[in-house]
Design a protein that fits this description.
Blueprint: H1 6-20, E1 24-30, E2 46-51, H2 56-63, H3 66-71, E3 78-81, H4 82-86, H5 93-101, E4 103-108, H6 119-144, H7 148-172, H8 180-190, H9 195-205, H10 212-217, H11 219-235
Parallel strand pairs: 2-3
Antiparallel strand pairs: 1-2, 1-4
Helix pairs in contact: 6-7, 6-11, 7-8, 7-9, 7-11
């Protein structure tokens, strides 16, 4: 985690403890601020908080702190009752798998200790996500009406989701790589995608990005890569 985010981590743990008291079980940070020490990442701190139970009063108390959290670069925490969390791995294998891949415990026990995601659940989720991504890409391209700026926006906006698809493919193949770039490349190699495309996508995933004209010209290769991913996950065993 980036050193400058330590105060944010302390702030969210203290706030959640004030709301839930002894009902607070675990607080786990995840996302870009955790990966690679959070170097040069401007995104807010993301956290998963597990609690004994979650009431409307808890939601109201959390809502009262929302503006303060935003001001201190803290994303709205993902609040879940502990038993609900443990029963939903089959429903959200990709989302929990991404947190599992790179996380840091801020409070309590590590909720992922002894937890594994079923490979069959992960494959089905990958298929649904990839094919949905493909359908929306084609639809968005038509809606862009051939305008380079609009096409560039499609590629730029969807690059993080595409990167996540590749990391999920890596995880499907048993990868435990924590570094986001390395995990993305592992997934791309498994699906036999061009390294040059992955380099461009990795660049687009971070705020610096590439020039709009480059992103627009990337679309045909990008679309072909998502089509290849769909074929790959269809035949994965």
């Amino acid at each position: 985690m980036s050193p400058h985010l330590s105060p944010a981590a302390d702030r969210i743990v203290n706030a959640l403890h004030a709301i839930f008291g002894q009902r607070l079980r675990s607080v786990v940070a995840y996302g870009p601020q955790v990966e690679n020490g959070g170097a040069d990442v401007a995104e807010p701190l993301s956290c998963l908080a597990l609690v004994a139970n979650l009431t409307i009063a808890d939601l109201e108390a959390s809502a009262a702190r929302a503006h303060e959290w935003t001001r201190h670069q803290i994303a709205t925490p993902l609040l879940l009752p502990e038993d609900e969390f443990r029963r939903s791995f089959d429903a959200f294998p990709l989302e929990y798998g991404e947190i599992l891949r790179a996380h840091q415990v801020l409070f309590g026990a590590n909720p992922f200790d002894g937890i594994s995601i079923e490979r069959a659940d992960l494959r089905r989720a990958c298929e649904a996500q990839i094919k949905s991504h493909l359908v929306h890409l084609r639809e968005a391209y038509i809606g862009a009406a051939g305008t380079p700026r609009a096409v560039a926006d499609i590629v730029t906006a969807s690059a993080p989701a595409f990167g996540a698809l590749l990391r999920n493919i890596a995880r499907l193949n048993g990868s435990v790589e924590k570094d986001w770039a390395a995990a993305t490349r592992e997934g791309a190699r498994a699906a036999q995608l061009a390294d040059t495309l992955v380099t461009s996508i990795l660049t687009l995933e971070r705020p610096t990005g590439v020039k709009a004209v480059d992103a627009a010209r990337l679309f045909p290769e990008y679309l072909a890569a998502v089509e290849q991913l769909a074929r790959y996950v269809d035949t994965w065993r």
